[in-house]
What we know:
Structural class: alpha+beta
Number of domains: 3
Largest sheet: 9 strands, mixed
Order of helices and strands: HHHHHHHEEEEHHEHEEEHEEEHHHHHH
Helix content: 40-55%
CATH superfamily of the largest domain: Transposase Inhibitor Protein From Tn5, Chain A, domain 1
Radius of gyration: 27 Å
Number of helices: 17
Amino acid sequence: MNIITKILGNDNKKLNYSVTNFFKEYNISSIMKESNFYKEKGKCNVLIFKFLLILVFTGKNFYRFLETEKGEFIFAKDTIYRFLNSIHYNWSKFILILAEKIINNKFSPLTSSDRKNVLIVDDSTYSRNRSKEVELLSWVRDHTTGMFVKGYKLLTLGWSDGNSFLPLMFRLLSSSDSKNRLCPQNKNIDKRSVGFKNRKSALTKKTDAMLTLLEEASKYQIPAKYVLFDSWFTFPKIIHQVKELGYEVIAMVKKMPKVFYEYYGEKINLEKLYSRLSKKRGKAKILTSVTVLVESKGKKIPIKIVFVRNKSKKRDWLAIISTDRSLSEEEIVRIYGKRWDIECFFKICKSYLKLSKEFQGRSYDSMVAHTAIVFVRYMMLSLESRKNRDLRSIGVLFYKHCDELQDLKFTEAISILFAILKEVMLEKLMLTKKEINGFLNFFLQSLPRYIRDLNTFSYCES
C-alpha cells in the first residue's frame, strides 16, 4: 500500500518519487527501530510518519485533511495522536542519526576538504500564545520583539558547510524558573522513559542544554571543527567547556562590563580593551584585532578578538572571538558569517513548514514529535536542493511541490467539467460525436493559454 499515492493521487510523480526514494535510500525504518520506535497497535509507524511528513504539501492541516477526506482516509485520528504522544520514541536520536547519514553519504563527498565545516547553535521562540493548558508552557522572551510570549525556546544545533544546512539536534526548553511556568509537567510519566528525560532537559538552563547537545553530537562522526554561536552564549566558562569537547569557538561577544580579558597582565573589559588598541583609518570594515587570555576556574586559554564596524551604526563596533588564532581576521569574519544559515532555517520552518502551527497538541511529547517532523521536512528540501545543484531557495522548492498539487486539483476539476458537458450534450441536444468534439475543441481554443497547455483534454478528439 503506497500511502503517498493514497494521499496525493497517482499523478504527483515528482513528490511521490522524492519521498519514496528518501525513505529507501536512508533506510528510515531501520533508523526508527534504532531510535526506539515500535508499533503499539494499529498501523505501521513508518506509514504514519510518512503521512505526517508530506501533510504540509497538501496545503491543509490534519483537521482540514480529515474533513475533506470524508471518512475515506486510512488512519483514524486517534492513531495519529497516539503516534505523536508516545513517550518512548527517541526523536533526538532519530534526527541525529539521519543527519549524520546525509552529511557523510551525500554532502561530504560533494564538499572540498579545504572547506570549513561548522556546528551552529542558536535558539528561536516557539510560540503558543493562544494556548492555556499545554504541558510546561511558560513565559519566554522573544528577542525580535523584546516582549514576553507564551511558549518555549527552541534550542537547535545544526551543521553547515556554507552551502547546505542540516539540523542535528534540538531541545524544546521551558523556563528554568518555576515562577515563569504556566502549566506543570505530567507527573504520571514513567521515569525510565525518553519522555521523562525530555521533560527533565526542558527545565535546564540554555547554556547547559547547549553543552549537552554538543556532547551528544560529538559521539557521532560529523565533520566539523568550529562551533558558532551568538553573544547570548559567549561567556568564558562556555568557551572553555566547548574547547574541552575538541571544538574551536568562533562567536560574537557582548560588551559586558563584568567579563574581563587579560591583556599584558591586566584584566580589563571589552570596551576598555578596544579603547587601548590602534585602529585602521578610513572606512575599513575590520577595525583592529588583538590576542588576549580568557580565564575560567583558574585555567587560561588564548583567544583572538576581531573588532569590526557595525553596519547599522557606523560609529559603533562589534567583536568576534576565535580560539583558533591561526585564522586571519578576514577568515574569522567569513566563517562566522555561516551562522546566518540557522536564521534562514528558523524562517523556513516557521513560514513554510508550519512549525508550532500544524497540530495543537497539549502534551510535551506531541510538540517534540512535531518539531522533529518539521526538521525532517527541511532535511528533505535541503537534500533535494543540494542533489540538483538548485540555485533556488528552499522556500521556492516548497512552493514548487505545493503548486504541483494545486495544479493537479485544478486540472482534475476542469477535466470533470468537460466530461459532464460532453455527456449532457450527447443526451439532451442529440448531437453527433463529431459535432460535440468540434464544439468542445472550439471552446478549448477560446480558453486562456495556461489552461490549454495543461494537456488534459485529449478526450475531446475521441
